[in-house]
Structure formats: C-alpha cells, structure tokens
Amino acid sequence: MRPRFVFLMALAVFLVVLSAGSTSANFALDLVVSPQTAVPNQRVTLDGRGYTPSSQPGGNGPSGSHQITGTGNSVISVGGTPLTLPNAFYPINFDESGAWTTFVSIPVTDVTVAGGSITIQAVDDQGVSHTAQVIIGIPSITLSPESSRINTEITVTGQGFPASNLLTRLNSQVPISYAGFPLTVISADDLGRFTAKIQVPSTTKIPSNNIVKATVLGLSQLAQAVHAVPEPAITVSPPSGVPGTAVTVTGRGFLPNVLVSNTRAGNINVARSPAPATDDDGNFITYFAVPVFSPGLQTVSATAEGFTGTSFFEVLAGTPVIHPLPTPPTSSVPTDALATLTQSNDLMRVWTFDNATQRWEFFDPRPAFLGANTIKTMVPGRIYWLQLLRDRTVSLNGKVVGLYEGWNLHPW
Predict the structure, then answer these.
(1) DSSP 41
(2) Is the peptide bond before 91 cis (omega within 30 degrees of 0)?
(3) What is the pLDDT of residue 75?
C-alpha cells in the first residue's frame, strides 16, 4: 500500500506543477495590445514584457535602460508598416526588468483598412522582438429605413471606418453617395463610427433599388447598402360605403409636379376637373363620389405620368346617398400658394401690377421682407412676374407649370 501512496502523491505534485506552468504561460504574454479590436487611426495601448533588462550592458536610456529607439530595426510596426511620428513616439524606455508601456495609433493603410487580424511587432535595441495580434474592423453601413420614397430622409449608420484622432491630426472624412450621386461628407468619431442624414434625390427612378456608398477617403475601401424606392401607392378613405359616398384618394410616391391624368373606380372615370397635380414629394389628394355599383369590391386607380397606384373600395348594399365632395385645400397667401418654390429657396421675388390702385406690388420670401411685402394674396386672373434661381417644374394653383431661371410671366 505504501508504494502506491507515494506514487499518487508524486502524481498530484506533478499535476499541480503542470497546472501552475500552464497558468504562467497564459498570463506571461510578451506583448499585449489593448483594446484587442480597433479601427485604423485609433489609439491603442501596448504593454511589453520579456525585453532586454537594464542589467544587460549597452542601454542608452535612463540608468542604462534599454529602449525601442525608433531608428533602424528598433521600431514598432503594424501590418508590416514601421510606425513613425505621430503614430508612435520614440524612444520607449524599459524598466529594470525589460518591461514597458506606450500607446500608438494604428496607421491608415490598404492593409489595415482591409480589416482582419493584423500583426503588431515591437523590436528593442538588442533585436529582441515580440508580436501581438489586433483585430481591425471592416467598414460597414446600415440604413434606416431600408425602403422609402423620393425626398424622404434616410439615416446612415457606419462603423469600422478610420477614426478621427487628435494626435495624428487626422479628421476621418467619409463621403456618402446615393445611386452614384455625391450627397455629403461626414466625420467619423474616435472609434470609427458615424451617423449621417441623407435625402433620397427627387430624380431617383420609381421604383428602383439604389446603392448607398460610404467611402474611405483616399483609399478604395468602401461600405455599401441597398435602399429601395417602392412603387407609387394610393389609399382610399373611407374603405367602404354605399353608392354616392364621398371618397378621398391619397397618392404617395409618384413623380413630383405632374398631373394626375386619370382616376378610375372600376371602369368609370371619376377624375375631377381641374385634374390634381402631385407636389414636390410626389403626393396628391383627390376626391370622387362612388358610382352606382352592385355590392362588392371595386378597384380604384390613379395614374400620373405612366405610373398607376391601385386600391380597393367595398360597395355596400343600401340606398345611394348624396355626399358633397370636399373642396381641395387652397390658400391665396403667397407663403402658402408659392410654398413649392419658397421651401426649396428657388424663388427670389414676385412682382405684379394692380390696375385698381395703379401700383406695383411685390413679394420677397426672405424673412427680412416679411413686414414689407405688398402682395398679400395671389389674385386669380392676375399676371405675376416670378424670378427664379434655377429651372423648375412645379405645381402652382393646381396646375403643373414649367418655369425657368430668371424672370417668368405667369397668369394666376
């Protein structure tokens, strides 16, 4: 029994020693980077152990300590690129045991921007070298919403881009484009993140899928996502009723500033006169009275410039009614009547001549002229001179009008 006991005791001591050795190996790393995940141009901390101690002659640092000098082969490199000012500050002095701590900035190179596991190497003045791995994020973007109509706002959220860093004096710039059209340039933060607001261009094809790109300025690396512009759509309210019910048709996502040429309930043309026009966002409102149909579902459709939106109305059994149709909201106040031009800052000034008073009147949309404007209402039948900054096709007074840069003569 005694030899067996001695063997078991020896085995237990061996396992304890082996376990202690494994633990030591796990925690006695020679070079440690923190954080272990980063982006290009981000500042990280390096902790070195196991480098040349001061007890070995030849050190040029304080009290004979050894260094990473920043000259020759004695440098810190990231992804094979030796770091120089301002990405690293030399010399880096060691303590008596050959340990040191410093911070460096990940360089912005094709290698680091491509992302993945990147090697950091630190070599001291005696050629002692250790390495560590840092994981570099890959640029990516997300869109919210992923589907919306022209002139709507999209939030672009990015991560993994080069960071802005005061030490390297690099303010990371990210150009953003929609379907190939440059829209804005945004700055990434110190962790390579950004949030940008962009607007779907009014010239975007309906329907369509469009690429939103965020590019690393000066390099070929980019991130992209797809944004969808849906087909035009209409809604009817109320969704059901007996014949004669007044129905409101609301259109969304059509081409901007075009006439709604056809509105139908079943096979009957229910378009009103004058025909409505879409606004700058491609939206419109029109009305009709439900014809005398047999009970059941009837298709309702509206067409503008070749695009058609459809919905359904349920005709209920019952005695037909006579409901007056709503009057489309209109305003003769210049700020409202000319809103499609003033909101886009395309209108410079309006002039008209009042035959009754034999005086010229004007309207200027700038806030400074709010109390000075003499055109208080837009009078039907009167002639107006409109000065524009650029060519525009707009809906004015229920009509689609083509206007040009400069002065335009337009009857109201």
Answers:
(1) T
(2) yes
(3) 98
What one-character DSSP code corresponds to residue 316? P
Number of domains making up the chain: 4
Q: Is it the case that residue 362 has pLDDT exceeding 70?
A: yes
Could you give the C-alpha distances from 303 to 9, 129, 150, 235, in angstroms and in order? 92, 73, 18, 13
Residue 282's CATH number: 2.60.40.1930
The CATH number assigned to the domain holding 38 equals: 2.60.40.230
192, exposed or middle or buried, with CB in 10 Å at 0-12, 13-18, 19+?
Answer: buried
Phi, psi of 314, rounded to the nearest 5 degrees: -95, 115
Mind listing the pLDDT tens digit for each residue in 140-182? 999 999 999 998 999 999 999 999 998 888 888 999 999 999 9
> Are 340 and 373 part of one and the same domain?
yes
pTM score, two decimals? 0.69
Q: Are 254 and 206 in contact (CB under 8 A)?
A: yes
Residue 254 structural domain: 233-315
Of 280, 236, 230, the closest CA to residue 257 belongs to 280
